[in-house]
Amino acid sequence: MQERRGIVGNQTQDSSIKNQDGSVIARRDDEAISTDKYYLWSGSYVGNSLLFWRQGKAGYTTDLDKAHQFYFDEALEIQKGSNGDHKMIPVSHCNQIATKQVHADHLDRRLVGKELQP
């Protein structure tokens, strides 16, 4: 396994890994960190939805099914190189709090406002 200190900053006795500014990045053992997946949040919103990096790193999306999933080291490298603009969020956390939404661009406007006969 590669040396983590050069990549992630400082690891404390409580197994937390911190940025150079002292903010905690993760509190897991090295094996869990290296296998967990993360989304990268661009720091922007569309409405009230977070805007994530799209699969293939080709643009952005609010749809988790279309969002790129990064391993810890790659996500951290991008986060650190973004001057704080992009933040990594565990996929497991996003999946726990995700909600279904109806996007206006998918709405069949012919069905809106009409009474349907049984």
Describe this protein's structure.
The structure is a single chain. With about 120 residues, the chain is α+β, with helices and mostly antiparallel strands. It has one domain (about 5-100). About 20% of the residues lie in helices and about 25% in strands. The chain has four helices and eight strands; from the N terminus they run αβββαββββαβα. It has helices at about 5-10, 30-35, 70-80, 90-95; strands at about 10, 15-20, 25, 35-45, 50-55, 60, 70, 85-90. The strands form two sheets. Strands 4, 5, 6, 7 and 8 form a five-stranded antiparallel β-sheet that branches. The termini are far apart.
Summarize the structure.
The chain is α+β, with helices and mostly antiparallel strands.
